[in-house]
Amino acid sequence: MNNKKYITKGKGLPNWSNPISHAVVVNNMCFVSGQLSVNIDGKYISGTILEEGKLAFSNFFSALSNAEFEKDDVVFIDIAFDNLKDLPEINTLYMQLFPKDKRPARTIYQAEALPFGGKIKITGTAVKELF
Question: In the chain, which ranges are E strands?
Fold first, then answer.
């Protein structure tokens, strides 16, 4: 029995040629691949850390939605970014996106280089409660 679902295309997701799934669902868990500041046409959009972060998170949430998961299902976020000086803005964005009592666990770190020369990459895991 195949209990995996691969999200390679979907509403609001960038259409690009990278050989990845935006998300993979296994049972009640959704694993979202690293999402970047890439528009629907698959083109990298350069901007401030907040602009790129908003688009990367938008892509992350689109991957979740296409996998039939919601923001409240997110249990872990991994944020890679290119400049430690941007940490206050990233924290501000994170606090806007996730209410204080529903913030996922997270790792956050500076990466030497990100695809397309980007400033931020968002990866994460969501889990649905089973009743």
Answer: 4-7, 23-26, 29-35, 74-81, 105-110, 120-127
